[in-house]
Amino acid sequence: MEKPTVIGYIMDQPRALKQAYADRQVFIRPFIELFRRYPIKKIYFLGSGTSYHASVIGSYYMKHLLHIDAEAHYPTIFANYERVDPHYDKTEVLFLGISQTGTSISTIQVMQKAKQEGYLTAVLCEDLNSEITHHVDEVIHLRCGKELTPPETRGFTVTVLTLYLWTLELGLAQQKMTNEIYEKYQEELRHLLEELPAVFDDCIKWYQENKNDFLESERLHVLGYGVDSGSALEAALKIGEMFRKPTISYDIEEYAHGPNMALKPDQAIFMIGADEVEWERLLQFRDVFKKYTERIYVITTKHLKDATKRDMIFPLTVNKYLAVILHAIPFQLVAAMGARDSGIDTAVNPFEEPLSHLPDKAS
Ligand SMILES: O=P(O)(O)OC[C@H]1O[C@](O)(CO)[C@@H](O)[C@@H]1O
């Protein structure tokens, strides 16, 4: 990439994800080793922004695929208002920070506090020389490469890939996942990595066909559920950071409890169609929402019988845990291309005061 741009990082993901997969032992080995050395039964995932959203997804993987007790928290809220589950012995708890830059102030502080209190701490971080690495027991490399523009995009999908692979390997190591499932999920991942360039082509075409709607929309909503609760949060953050339109994410059922009353024809609703029990509910809501705005977009790998050009139906089927990586792409494009097409320079952070990061990545 000659001049780093967000669109450049987004388009680089097929290469970056393949590379991270090829290098996977770098981050798998130390993670599995932690579980071999310590009797970990509870994981607290901690991170801000994109790293929090990946944490929500990681805790879902651990709970639903491995039955390991896991929670994701915003660092400040955890530090100030939560307490460690007293049912666990100190040795059974892992504080797992995620910070791409390693400079998020609140994540550094919560990890530092946990370590001082004698808990086992680890961080998944791209910058191995960053501040956070001095405040944890174990540093695990996030193989996404540095992103020199403010929004994290490549970092998100590489983090999700890391969490997915950690879960599969731990499942095998602790015999919580059969060889058959392990192989199936690995094969689906390899297939996805091969198909990603074609997926990007489809997503760009979908953006082009719908871009006028996006540009003209006064407000955007992203509805998700299940494993894609984290995807919905991430989608809203990306659009807010780049396209800078009012964008709110909701759990799909909760959206129908009042926020829907503000729905108007110049608003858009993206519905992430995960393969979970709420799928039928999504179809029901979609029919109703269409009476209030035509701008309804289903983003899914599932079959949608009356799909229109507004819906982004991925041309491949993968398990719901992995579909999270696919679901991120259309939103990254709406955010970055929507910004470009409305004259916003995403390389410039309009907010000059460093509040959330230590100075080398001030925001
Ligand atoms: O993963 P990190 O480096 O801790 O950053 C967390 C969040 O902070 C930001 O850089 C903005 O403060 C977001 O882009 C990012 O999601």
TrEMBL record:
Keywords assigned: Repeat
GO biological process terms on file: fructose 6-phosphate metabolic process; protein N-linked glycosylation; UDP-N-acetylglucosamine metabolic process
Pfam families given in the database record: SIS
Coiled coil region boundaries: none
GO function terms (MF aspect): carbohydrate derivative binding; glutamine-fructose-6-phosphate transaminase (isomerizing) activity
Gene3D superfamilies linked to this entry: Glucose-6-phosphate isomerase like protein, domain 1
Domain spans labelled SIS: 31-178
InterPro entries: GlmS/AgaS_SIS, SIS_dom, SIS_dom_sf
PANTHER family reported in the protein's UniProt record: GLUCOSAMINE--FRUCTOSE-6-PHOSPHATE AMINOTRANSFERASE, ISOMERIZING, GLUCOSAMINE-FRUCTOSE-6-PHOSPHATE AMINOTRANSFERASE
Protein name per its UniProtKB record: SIS domain-containing protein
Species the sequence originates in: Copranaerobaculum intestinale
